[in-house]
Design brief:
Elements: H1 9-22, H2 31-48, E1 50-55, H3 60-63, E2 69-71, H4 73-82, E3 87-91, H5 94-103, E4 108-110, H6 126-135, E5 141-144, H7 149-153, E6 157-159, H8 164-170, E7 175-179, H9 182-189, E8 195-198, H10 211-218, E9 225-228, H11 234-239, E10 242-243, H12 246-256, E11 260-264, H13 267-274, E12 281-283, H14 297-306, H15 315-331
Parallel strand pairs: 1-2, 1-3, 3-4, 5-6, 5-7, 7-8, 9-10, 9-11, 11-12
This protein binds 1,3-dihydroxyacetonephosphate (13P) and iron/sulfur cluster.
Iron/sulfur cluster binds near residues 231 and 289.
């Protein structure tokens, strides 16, 4: 059942500046449903001394309405490290909440829905990593942040999609194991002479894009810029004009200022970016991440009221995972 809160003239007045920023991507008919939650969340956030970190894949009413910090996985990890609030609310998926907790053991880290998982994080366990280490003695293990704290704890260093190449090359070795995203590993391998041993994990959202989709999009569309996330299959990346993390996509659109662009990534990305670029048309084939979409305004309000779902990471795991995350942060 959809929860509703009354949309009063006072709430309309208080939330007007927020709506002005987001009106290009939030229909006027929907704002009366969102505004009371936005208002209540922003009030409670101050009372709790909480900060809300939201990934670029959050819906516009979260991204524009209540987030204090938005960004890609690396930016959110950095901001989590700098957080001075008593409570950190992570609107993303479970592994992002764990990363925030790994970096902030003395703060309360909560997520609106602890069931928000990730197909990449679920593709590998700590026992799998130990088996890889036994199979390839001495080969460093580079682990994508889209993994559980247990998996990070077994790793030498973490990476995100925006720093993966830099991290791999920083190690100064001829061979690395890169887990768990096979496509990200393939993309990095295409740009370096370091040999990459990969794992068979895939993002269930990005693996659905096809090179034929890119061909069809380009038909009769001179000048369409196609940008793919590195979690896409290799033939999709090859057919695109550029591949990069969600924040690299934004920078690329800013630099190239195309008339029309398509972002081959999660659906909310175009909505969130579009508000920054009035003169760019975003063509919108996209795939929805069901995990990211578990986050809603009513759940964020409940999380702030109850301070649940709390993320906890066992201390012996946390300190080992922290070493891998901090090693990454020192590089990029
Ligand atoms: P980035 O925002 O780091 O590009 O990650 C994308 C992603 O799929 C996060 O779940
Ligand atoms: Fe995981 Fe893919 Fe969803 Fe990101 S978009 S959280 S990688 S399933």
């Amino acid at each position: 059942m959809i929860e509703l809160l009354p949309f009063t003239p006072e709430i309309e007045e208080r939330t007007r500046p927020i709506y002005e920023r987001a009106k290009a991507v939030i229909p006027a008919a929907e704002w009366p449903l969102y505004a009371p939650f936005v208002d209540a969340i922003n009030r409670l956030k101050r009372e709790r001394n909480a900060v809300i970190l939201a990934h670029n894949y959050q819906t516009p009413e979260i991204f524009h309405g209540v987030a204090d910090i938005v960004g890609d996985s690396l930016q959110l990890a950095r901001e989590a490290q700098r957080a001075e609030a008593d409570v950190i609310v992570v609107c993303g998926v479970h592994f992002m909440g764990e990363t925030a907790k790994i970096l902030n053991p003395n703060r309360r880290v909560i997520v609106p829905d602890a069931q928000a998982g990730c197909s990449l994080a679920e593709s590998i366990t700590a026992a799998d990593v130990r088996a890889l280490r036994a199979q390839y003695p001495g080969v460093p293990i580079v682990t994508y942040v889209n993994t559980s704290a247990d998996v990070k704890a077994e790793s030498d260093i973490c990476c995100t999609s925006s720093n993966a190449l830099r991290v791999v090359e920083s190690l100064g070795v001829p061979r690395v194991i890169m887990i768990p995203d096979e496509f990200l590993a393939h993309y990095v391998a295409s740009q370096t002479s370091v040999e990459i041993i990969s794992w068979k994990g895939h993002c269930e959202v990005h693996e659905r894009f096809r090179a034929i989709d890119v061909e069809r999009l380009r038909e009769g569309e001179d000048g369409l810029l196609v940008i793919a996330h590195p979690e896409c299959p290799p033939d999709v990346i090859a057919a695109a004009d550029f591949a990069g993390s969600t924040s690299a996509m934004i920078d690329f659109v800013r630099d190239r200022a195309p008339q029309r662009v398509v972002l081959l990534t999660e659906c909310s990305m175009s909505d969130n970016v579009a508000t920054q670029f009035d003169n760019v048309e975003f063509v919108r084939p996209c795939n929805l991440c069901p995990h990211m979409k578990r986050n809603t305004l009513p759940k964020i309000l409940r999380a702030l009221e109850t301070l649940q779902d709390e993320i906890l990471v066992e201390e012996s795991v946390r300190v080992r995972a922290l070493a891998a995350v901090e090693r990454m942060m020192a590089i990029a």
